[in-house]
Amino acid sequence: MTGRATAEAPANIAFIKYWGAHDLGRGVPLNTSVSMTLDRCVSTCTVETRPAKSDDPGSADEVFLAESDGLQPAPEAFARRVLNHLDRLRCLVDDDVAFRVATKNSFPAAAGMASSASGFAALTLATTRALGLDPSRHELSVLARRSGSGSAARSVLGGYVELPGGPHEEDVYARPLASAEDWELRDVVAVVATEPKSVSSLEGHRRVRSSPYFRERLALLPGRLDAVRQAIEGRDFHLLGPVVEEEGIDLHLVAMSAIPPIFYWTPGTIETLDGVRKLRRDGVEAYSTMDAGPNVHVICRPADEAQVAERLTELASVQRVIRDGVGSGPRLCEDHLL
Questions:
Q1: Do you find a cis peptide bond into 222, omega within 30 degrees of 0?
Q2: What is the reported pTM?
Q3: At what angle do helices 214-234 and 237-256 cross, to 10 degrees?
Q4: Is 79 helix (H, G, I), strand (E, B) or coil?
Q5: What is the pLDDT of residue 231?
Q6: C-alpha distances out from residue 299 to 32, 198, 320, Å
Q7: Residues of the chain scoring pLDDT < 70
Q8: pLDDT per position as a tens digit, 8-58
């Protein structure tokens, strides 16, 4: 079997976070999460298949990063996760195939900006198409989640997305709450660090149960989920914003109080959070949230995007501002990386 496909998949920003897992290896989250699919922060992945020449097809798999100066072998830890997922996807067909993969991001990887979500969603879509398969969005969500990135299950859909928590794996796939056209919001990202974070999200999921505040957060989630669902249905930004900001802070409260503690924040994170509060005092309705990393997402309406971006750019610790918004989800591409 030979085939080639290229997919582009977006990152997402979680309004209600997935933090803690029933089954970390298969990406089965402990709690329900809700996210907004982004538009410009994307991963692009090309997958080529070819007949395997040995009894161990996986031994011939290759994984590359598509850099400005050409293809470079992927770092070992990243390549291992990709190869493990390719082994799962290889089982979808009867033929013995080997894979050649190239991937790139439009935004910093491993810095707490959901690069695993976009990366594994793109890898899953490109691989299934290269294998000649056409899975439904439901099936694609399940396959992407089994990479170990629960957030990847949400990145296969556009707009506003809900992913139920476990423990029943068959029920854990993304459901749409609203389309990108239903509610146009903006995500202005203050990038304060681009290097890979010292504690991965996978390790964070392992540690969170040790926090004395872990159960407190779980007890608060049903009310927060109801508020976010209601806000999305009613396009109610006044309701959405405070809940999203509170939830973003709580994820890090749990991380910081884990044993051993996880400190994702940097001085730049704190400066940016203070800058968002000052924006609100000046009458600009904008709210911050963060995934497991130091960079800050600022959610606002389109009319306020330029002012938010300008104010964030003025902060000394902000290296770069990415102006993004709600997007329509993954797509197949004609321009290949291989």
A1: no
A2: 0.95
A3: 160
A4: helix
A5: 98
A6: 21, 26, 16
A7: 1
A8: 999 999 999 999 999 999 999 999 999 999 999 999 999 999 988 777 777
Kindly give, in sequence order, each residue whose CB lies less than 8 Å from that of residue 143, ignoring residues fewer than 6 positions away. 88, 89, 124, 128, 135
The whole-number pLDDT of residue 1 equals: 64
| Ramachandran class of 148: left when φ > 0, alpha when ψ lies in -120 to 50, beta otherwise | left
Query: What single string gives the DSSP state of each residue in 161-209?
Result: EEE---S-GGG-S-EEEE-TTT---EEEEEE---SPPSS-HHHHHHHGG
Position 114 scores a pLDDT of: 79
Identify the residue whose tokens are 């990152």.
Answer: 11
Retrieve residue 110's tokens.
């491993």
Domain 186-325: which CATH class? alpha beta
CATH fold group of domain 3-181: Ribosomal Protein S5; domain 2 (3.30.230)
Contact 131, 88 (CB under 8 A): no
Q: What is the pLDDT of residue 54?
A: 75
* Tokens standing for residue 108: 């910093």
Instruction: Tell me the residue length of the chain.
Output: 338
pLDDT at site 109: 82
d(CA 291, CA 100): 31
Which residues in the chain are classed under CATH 3.30.70.890?
186-325
Separation between Cα atoms, residue 64 and residue 83, nearest integer Å? 11
- Burial state string for 61-91 with b = 16 or more CB within 10 A and e = fewer than 16: bbbbbbeeeebeebeeebbebbbebbeebbe
pLDDT computed for residue 227 by the predictor: 98
Specify the long-range contacts of residues 177-181, CB closer than 8 Å, at least 24 apart: 177/34, 177/229, 177/232, 177/233, 178/232, 178/233, 179/328, 180/37, 180/39, 180/326, 180/327, 180/328, 180/329
